[in-house]
């Protein structure tokens, strides 16, 4: 006679979760001997693997907002800082930081060109 018992366990922890599946079978042989076979499979995931909501970099948001409001110097500074932080930390928002830095740089160049034209015309 063969007796099998299966078990599925879910174990949450501070660093992530573990899903454990186990199966134990007791097989009785022809001579009355008993053989126990066990299978265990464990699937573990860390918190970073389960984190689907990546954070958006705050400097990237500030860079885009200040650039759109016309403050080119803070937009440029926060944009560069945001791009560096997104690369190092793996956060979302690199595109926003790039857009903020690009808009700020374009506004700065237009301002310099306008200033040069005004000074040259006087």
UniProtKB/TrEMBL annotation:
The keyword Transmembrane helix applies. The keyword Transmembrane applies. The chain crosses the membrane at residues 60-84, 96-120. Keywords: Membrane, Transmembrane, Transmembrane helix. This is DUF4190 domain-containing protein.
């Amino acid at each position: 006679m063969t007796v099998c018992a299966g078990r599925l366990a879910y174990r949450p922890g501070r660093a992530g979760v573990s899903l454990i599946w186990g199966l134990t079978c007791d097989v009785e042989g022809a001579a009355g001997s008993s053989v126990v076979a066990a299978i265990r499979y464990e699937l573990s995931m860390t918190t970073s693997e389960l984190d689907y909501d990546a954070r958006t970099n705050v400097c990237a948001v500030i860079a885009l907002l200040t650039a759109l409001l016309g403050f080119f110097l803070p937009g440029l500074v926060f944009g560069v800082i945001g791009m560096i932080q997104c690369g190092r930390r793996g956060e979302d928002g690199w595109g926003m930081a790039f857009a903020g830095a690009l808009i700020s740089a374009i506004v700065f160049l237009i301002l310099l060109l306008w200033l040069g034209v005004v000074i040259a015309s006087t």
